[in-house]
UniProtKB/TrEMBL annotation:
One of its GO terms (biological process) is fatty acid biosynthetic process. InterPro entries: KR_dom (IPR057326), NAD(P)-bd_dom_sf (IPR036291), Sc_DH/Rdtase_CS (IPR020904), SDR_fam (IPR002347). The keyword Ubl conjugation does not apply. NCBIfam families: PRK07067.1 (NF005472), PRK07231.1 (NF005559). Its EC number is 1.1.1.14. Residues 6-184 form the Ketoreductase domain. This is L-iditol 2-dehydrogenase. It comes from the Bacteria. GO terms for molecular function: L-iditol 2-dehydrogenase (NAD+) activity; quinone binding. It comes from Aquitalea palustris. Belongs to the short-chain dehydrogenases/reductases (SDR) family. Transmembrane segments: none annotated. Pfam families: adh_short_C2.
Length: 257
């Protein structure tokens, strides 16, 4: 029970990696505020399974009032916040010469602005509580290097790595650890969009890109959401107390070739 008596906020908790991490945190004893745009059946089922330790909140991390509501809901329900698993994001891609301002604004609003300002709001609460905390930001291998068709998404994920370092330095005096996770390719609902977009822009058959990226991973397959939960638990637990400002690759050894 590595997270007994801890309270966590998880965003993007209805799907993919987010719900897998929510299940792992709950197994380890945490109480969790699970946040997403829609409260789907899987979230409702988790709430029924753990009525004392799960609260659900429908919220959009791009909205300032929703950021405030996320923090106040966690505090009202559980009394404090120990862990932020900052995960909500969207994907989009276009040939660079066709990139639109609208796509840029949407990607940066969710993946960057939402993530940064939720971190800030939660960090203010953690500083007030005075007993440290753990913040985990979801970046990507897409933040480590560019991709011709994915310029804006890659830039959002590079921004997350940079902000993770800055926030870690700013919050270290308060005993708050800020780290990131950079997954490679993980088989989640996000990949429906990724695969369809690569099919459109690279002239592939649907499903081809997923197969190719899986084959390119040195460990021989795409990741599953559960493959990310060990790192998410480690960075939320006391096992990582002396680690901050890092972004940990969890990618099977590589990413797309
Ligand atoms: P997903 O698409 O399965 O889940 C993302 C969740 O975020 C969805 O439930 C969605 O409703 C929610 N969300 C989107 N916009 C939101 C908003 N404005 N407010 C609140 N919630 C919002 O994605 P997946 O694959 O589980 O990704 C999780 C994280 O991992 C993301 O940050 C993603 O960029 C990152 N990642 C994923 C990879 C992959 O191959 N699946 C690879 C590298 C990084």
């Amino acid at each position: 029970m590595k997270l007994a008596h801890k309270t966590a906020i998880l965003t993007g908790a209805a799907s993919g990696i987010g719900i897998a991490v929510a299940r792992r945190y709950l197994q380890e004893g945490a109480s969790c505020l699970l946040v997403d745009l829609k409260l789907n059946d899987e979230l409702q089922a988790l709430q029924q399974e753990h009525p004392q330790r799960v609260a659900l909140l429908q919220a959009d991390v791009t909205r300032r009032e929703d950021i405030a509501a996320i923090v106040s809901s966690a505090v009202e329900r559980f009394g404090s916040i120990d862990i932020l698993y900052n995960n909500a994001a969207i994907f989009d891609m276009h040939p660079l010469l066709d990139e639109s301002w609208d796509s840029f604004d949407r990607l940066f609003a969710v993946n960057v602005k939402g993530m940064f300002f939720l971190l800030q709001a939660v960090a203010r609460q953690m500083v007030e509580q005075g007993r440290g905390g753990k913040i985990i930001n979801l970046s990507s291998q897409a933040g480590r290097r560019g991709e011709a068709l994915v310029a804006h998404y890659c830039a959002t994920k590079a921004a997350v790595i940079s902000y993770t370092q800055s926030a870690a330095l700013a919050l270290a005096p308060h005993g708050i650890n800020v780290n990131g996770i950079a997954p490679g390719v993980v088989d989640t609902p996000m990949w429906k969009d990724v695969d369809a977009l690569f099919a459109r822009y690279e002239g592939r058959q649907p499903g081809d890109k997923k197969r190719l990226v899986g084959e390119a991973v040195p460990l021989g397959r795409m990741g599953l959401p559960e493959d990310l939960t060990g790192a998410a638990l480690f960075l939320a637990s006391a096992d990582s107390d002396y680690i901050t400002a890092q972004t940990l690759n969890v990618d099977g050894g590589n990413w797309m070739s």
